[in-house]
Amino acid sequence: MFSFYLFRRYFLSSRSTSLVKVVAWICLFGLAVSVAALILITSIMGGFGKAITSRLISNEPHLIIDLKENPFLTQHELNFIKQKQQEVQDIHFFETQDLIIKTPLGFKGVVATGYSLEDLKNKSSSEFGTLKSYLTNTASQKNQREILLNYELLAELNLNVGDELTLIPLKSLLLPPSMVPPIKKVKIKDVIKDDNHKSSGFSIFYERGTLDFGQYSQMKYGAEVELKNPENYLSYQHLFKNYKFSSWIDRNSTLFFALKLERFIMTLFIVLAIIISCLGISSSLFLLMTQKGKDIGILHAMGLSQREIIKTFTRLGFYLALIGIFLGLFIGVSGSAFFRFNRFNILPAMYEDRTIPAVFDPLSYLLITVSAILLALIACYLPTRHLSRIKPAELLKITGR
């Protein structure tokens, strides 16, 4: 091919103009680095997003339904949904209230969540792995109120297993000073292990019904729904259209928005770097055509039309851009494969998972490659347009000076 022959003579030959050659190859490597960086960011950010999604799905209820009535008394409707719909894996009912813990160090607000004994037993062992002793002794000690705390709250209040606490309802803060607020004495039975940060925050867990403060209670009721396909939670809306509910995505919308914004900003800057590299190739191509006016005039004299010459010089810059794009594609995919199959502890020790995750997304790689090729094609065509405005005779006159 004639255009490839000219490409080798102008950009690969040792006798080619040094300035054009240096500028062209600098832009080529800049384009390769930009494409590789964009592919790596796509893979790594996709890996982080997948890891976060997997952790949230395994640690949080997929749907939380707000109920107006006590679900332990009127649960036939939700039980019907659970039995009739194959998409719903399980439903756990709970009651929750805001309480105040009084300790020797002071007061602390907590969220108390009560489950039925059956639902506590059915909880995953990773979240409620220390409940076995609690469930074994609860049946024989109904009069003794026992709670479970997460480690974060235990450390904050400097408590130990076996300590007694005083729980006060939040509504009692509105009582006049002369009235004694209702209180309940409880004992810390065990600590919920927080290896996977599943019970973060200041919260306590108890068997439902044991912390009822009567008229001072501000009890709220709900149901935790486990779905077989939690990532496609929108398809389950028709099952709970009569209830107010929130999904695991809704409860972590700020986190997902931050991830999307970070990915968008990083992608934007690298796309700008790709555009700058393409413009650099365009500048080197324009410089080449300025210096090779005599050759262009000779091509006209040999019978090549202006359209054919424009195509020829457009291909020269396009070949240069293709080398950079596919070199960047190779580097980016290789780097993604390295992080995908070699899980080294790279992140600081403050993170639980110190490896850098990466995923393969062939569709994104194809989109990046095609977009870079289109940008390069436009950048290579723009400087050759001025050739259509110059007549062959003028080219020969200019180069004959």
Question: What does it look like?
Answer:
There is one protein chain. By secondary structure, this protein is an alpha+beta fold. The chain has twelve helices and nine strands. The chain has helices at 2-12, 18-59, 76-84, 117-122, 132-138, 151-156, 248-251, 253-291, 293-301, 306-341, 362-381, 392-399; strands at 63-67, 88-103, 106-115, 146-150, 164-169, 184-192, 203-207, 220-227, 244-247. The protein has a six-stranded mixed β-barrel. Strand 2 and strand 3 form a beta hairpin. Helix 8 packs antiparallel against helix 10 (306-341).
The major pleated sheet works out as: 6 strands, mixed, barrel
Identify the overall geometry: elongated
Beta strands, count? 9
Q: Helix coverage percent of residues?
A: 40-55%
What's the pLDDT, averaged over the residues?
Answer: 76
Helix-and-strand structural type: alpha+beta
How far is the first residue's CA from the last residue's CA?
Answer: 32 Å
Query: What is the CA-atom radius of gyration, in angstroms?
Result: 34 Å
**Strands ordered across the widest β-sheet:** 2-3-7-4-6-5
Strand percentage, roughly? Answer: 15-25%
SSE sequence, one letter per element: HHEHEEHHEHEEEEEHHHHHH
- Give the count of helical stretches: 12
The residue ranges in which pLDDT falls below 50 over 5 or more consecutive positions are 124-136, 138-142, 194-199
